[in-house]
Amino acid sequence: MPIDVARVQAALRARGLDGWLLYDFHGSNPIATHLAGLAGGGATGHMTTRRWYYLVPATGEPRSLVHVIERHNLDSLPGATTIYAGRQELADGLRQLLAGLTRVAMEYSPGGAIPYVSRVDAGTVEAIRQLGVDVVSSGDLVQQFEAVWDAAALASHREASERLYRVKDRAFAAVRDRLQAGTPTTEYDIQQLMVGWFGEEGLVSDSAPNVSAGGNAGNPHYLPGVNATRPIGRNEIVLLDLWGKRDRPGAVYADITWVGFTGPRPPAEYTRAFDAVRGARDAALALVQEAARTGRALAGFEVDRAARAVLERAGYGPQLLHRTGHSLGTEVHGNGVNLDDYETHDDRRLLPGTGFTIEPGVYFDTFGIRSEINVVMGEHDATVTGPMQPSLVLLG
């Protein structure tokens, strides 16, 4: 659906901005192409091989600047259009487009701090600033118009979550049954079973799920393949990370991680690590829920700090390798706030109507532990959309 101009203008006025300048070249800014209704490129009948700009001012009519051979790309959007061909016409058109403005938002992040927002190249930002117009980050605008779920999206997330939990249960049962029967089983074997169950459940994903055992669980982004897998043995950790969404337009992802142990009694080092990770997860969730209930603005970096503090106090500082959580959307890593003060400093606030993961983990050479839940931020509360793992799943 194309951009809602009236809502954008209200948001711009609330933030004291003169406008939101959408810009794209050759698909370099997927946020802009989606908001402009151009997502999919040629599949929608549009070629986007030239630079285009679409300005939504805080007041007044929107306006666009497009290349002559792609002059009709933004016809579905309201506002006047200026056409350019040569580079001088582009420079003159851009000056005219921004006349009278002093401060605009673009998909820019100071210092590249939030890469998910940092979509406009440095040269284009320089060109805007050389016209006397300040460029600020559109990060919170992007959240408001790209990351907030409507009722249908929320329903699709809950459906996906229920199905992922069923696939997770079947996968652990398959590991348990094969171990008891003495059937040789690899990570890839279980992964491929899960791929089949995704199909039965009507789920799609950008990747096959992760099944990692033993030392492979210590690699947060390990993914087995036909030529890269290991047997699942007894008395070791098995980590399942699975993400998917319903196969329909506008559906949003669910993304969970659970951990099992292929024996009757896990070693103390495994249970201690799991207990710390669970404590970090629950501390992050408690902070989010307290903020939602009291109406306090809460930034993503604050939630990351809360989880990280638990793990550091438990002595796991060196085993922390990633942020605490990420936004969920129509892509598994959405355009909303991430729970991050480690890889980046995400100072965007958690908005009602957004969904995200909480997934602290600790990683060693011989095993890894992560617990991942999905949370939906409401107006007055925050809800976990599935069971939270209380202890290691025993598969022995």
Description:
This protein is α+β, with helices and mostly antiparallel strands. The chain folds into 2 domains: 5-146, 3-Layer(aba) Sandwich (Creatine Amidinohydrolase, Chain A, domain 1), CATH 3.40.350.10; 149-394, Creatine Amidinohydrolase. Helix content is 33%, strand content 19%. The chain is built from 9 helices and 17 strands. It has helices at 5-15, 30-35, 87-97, 122-129, 139-147, 151-181, 187-201, 268-294, 300-313, and strands at residues 19-24, 52-57, 63-67, 80-84, 103-106, 134-137, 203-204, 210-213, 237-246, 254-261, 327-328, 355-358, 361-363, 368-370, 373-377, 382-384, 393-394. A 6-stranded mixed sheet has the order 4-3-2-1-5-6. Strands 7, 8, 9, 10 and 17 form a 5-stranded mixed sheet that branches. Strands 11-12-15-16 form a 4-stranded antiparallel sheet, with helices on one face. A hairpin with a 4-residue loop joins strand 15 and strand 16. Helix 6 (151-181) runs antiparallel to helix 7 (187-201) and helix 8 (268-294) runs antiparallel to helix 9 (300-313). It is elongated. The mean pLDDT is 96.
